[in-house]
Amino acid sequence: MNARRILALLLIVCLLALPILAQEEEESEEEEAIEAMGMTMQGVNSGLALFIVIAGILVVIQAGRILSGSFLWLTISIFYFGAISVFFLLAEFMHVIAIEDISVALAWHFMFYIATSLFIVALRRLQAFGQTHKQMDESRTAFIFFLLGGVLVAIFFSVKMLDPWLARYEGTFWDTFGLIHFVAATFIGYTAMQLFRLRKSFGRVITAAVKPFIVSLIAFTLVHAWELLAESWKVVDIGEAGEVLESVLYFIAITAMLYAVWQIKRRSQVKQ
Hints:
The protein has helices spanning 3-22, 30-63, 72-93, 101-132, 138-158, 163-166, 173-177, 179-198, 204-207, 210-232, 241-271. The protein is mainly α.
């Protein structure tokens, strides 16, 4: 079974599991249902985090040369997106990073802004690669990789120290307004605009990845739209099932992005 079929199978399983997790329980069993939902959520998120980490590593290893140099930005962007899922697991479910919910939200949105910015840079680099096929100097590539990787590690270690300060954001006008979600939507919208604008100048190798990239952006948009409605505006409430829904949407977004990278690799081999 090839990688594409494995990814598709895992996605189908998660989607089929969602209605089961969201079904209503009898009032007499409400507490047990909530506890079971919480345990199921932890299992789902643990599985998704593990899958994202392993799949990300495998894609980067298998992609080999094509993810070096000009593709560095895309690689780091994917790792930032994947790190968000790991952060959720450590903070929300395992409580290794014991911080307030609002601090979790602010921290992962900050990582999302960085990841999206890196993806925008990656689009421009991919455009240049499709036209010239020039690579960056290896020493510069290594420096950028370890620098941005260090920033990611610093976020994980500093968020607990900043928790008291970040917690002050909760309940403010900007919190209830949903500012962090609108900022995320702006990043996604600009990224989509750049993707459509630059696709004509991409080489055939890169163009093959445009559609899965678009799927990824749509899934990310749905994640933030759901959080805006359920957490900031509080107009929708389906309990713990909402968290599972977010996890599944995030899984779809990351999987689509990894598939896009895989397409780039496959088409580049055919071209060679």
